Structures are given as C-alpha cells and as structure tokens.
Amino acid sequence: MSHPAEGPSPDPRGVVIGPLDLAARVDDALAVQALAFGLTDDEIGVRRHIVLRHLATPGARALGATSETGRLVGFVYGLPNHRAHWWSTVVAPYLRAEGHEGWLDDSFVITELHVHPGHQKRGIGRTLITELTDGAAQPRSILSAIDAATPAHGLYRELGYRDLARPVHFPSAQSPYVVMGAHLPLRRRRA
Ligand SMILES: CC(C)(COP(=O)(O)OP(=O)(O)OC[C@H]1O[C@@H](n2cnc3c(N)ncnc32)[C@H](O)[C@@H]1OP(=O)(O)O)[C@@H](O)C(=O)NCCC(=O)NCCS
C-alpha cells in the first residue's frame, strides 16, 4: 500500500540553507553574530571591513540559513588559508611549537560560524559548516575557537576537528583560543 504523493515538505527547521551573498548581507550577518557571539557597535564596524576584505580573497565562500520570511538566522564563511593572512601569522608560531605548522598549507579556514540564539540546537550550525567544507578544494580545514567547553568547541570536536595548539592569544582578544584542524570531509553524525 503506497502513500499518496506528497509535495515537498518544509524543512523541519523552517530554514533554507544555501549559498549566501555575504557582501550584500554583511549587516544582517553581523547582526546575527552580535546576538550569538556578542559584539559591540565598534566591533561590528571593524568586523564589517574585515569580512568585506576576506570576501575579496580568491576561493572565499559563504553559506546562509534563511527563514521562510527571508530573515538570515545563521551563516558560515571561510577561505583557503594563506600564510600571509593576518590570522595565519598569529597562529603560525603556536602551531610550529606543537609541530603542526604544516596544517597552514592546503587548508580551508573557517573564519566565522554563527547561528541566531533563537534557532540554535536544531542542526543548523552542523549543516552550515559541513556543507561549506564539503565544497572546499583543500583536503583539510583549520579554525580557531575560544578555548573553553562551548557549544562551538563541542560541535567542532564532534565533526572531527582536534586541538592543534592551545592556548593561543590574539592581540585583540581577551580570551585564549584553541586552533583546531580536521581532515575533510568532516565526520557525519552517527546513525
Ligand atoms: C556554535 C554554534 C554555531 C552551533 O550552532 P547550532 O545550530 O546551535 O549547532 P547544532 O544544532 O548544529 O549542533 C551541533 C552539535 O554542536 C554541539 N552543541 C550545540 N549546542 C550545544 C550546547 N548548547 N552545548 C553542548 N553542545 C552543543 C552538539 O554536539 C551538537 O550535536 P547534537 O545536536 O548531536 O547534540 C552556535 O552555538 C553559535 O552560534 N554559538 C555562538 C557563536 C559561536 O560561538 N560561534 C563560533 C565561534 S568560534
């Protein structure tokens, strides 16, 4: 006995995940980041310039999670790592000290991943980072996260990222960070 044909069912999360024109939606994205991660108005202004500069890098890519009303509720972006980039110059000595400097080559860097607090814990963050890295030309991925037992750190570990160097201190940040790396594709959720 077959069921009657059904039309496409709405995503249970009520969002569509797909390519994002982040340059066009940068203010919406930073508003999500401000709520999820906490940013002052001054920091938003600084981040805006940084994001737009990153997007001019060859190979930079972004995905967004958009609600049925068109509201951006999550985003991720990243770019092929380059040793001359500011982030790389900061983390390189820490990776070198641990014998992991080679991770700076042939790696796709996850620069930002944020989900609006009202939409967290529904699998959106996992889908965003998994789909973005699935499209990377590089065989591995690196990122930095706050060095604490946060949801982000838990997610990254579940996806197969391991700690490469910690604590890592960025000049502009008060909290220590951990640099993590994973071979691609990222690990899928166990059935
Ligand atoms: C990190 C973040 C993007 C995760 O997004 P999300 O959509 O809530 O994550 P998901 O629902 O896809 O969760 C995936 C996994 O992450 C982990 N996770 C998510 N929320 C968690 C929580 N509150 N506590 C512990 N682990 C958590 C779990 O392992 C979860 O897997 P599970 O659903 O099988 O339990 C989101 O929490 C966020 O925006 N945080 C604030 C901003 C931030 O820290 N960004 C990263 C900067 S490095």
From TrEMBL:
InterPro entries reported for this sequence: Acyl_CoA_acyltransferase, GNAT_dom
Keyword Ribosomal protein recorded: yes
Every N-acetyltransferase domain range: 15-185
Cross-referenced Gene3D superfamilies: 3.40.630.30
Molecular-function annotations in GO: acyltransferase activity, transferring groups other than amino-acyl groups
Alphabetically ordered keywords of this record: Ribonucleoprotein, Ribosomal protein
Descriptive protein name: Ribosomal protein S18 acetylase RimI-like enzyme
Organism of derivation: Streptomyces zagrosensis
Source species taxonomy: Bacteria, Bacillati, Actinomycetota, Actinomycetes, Kitasatosporales
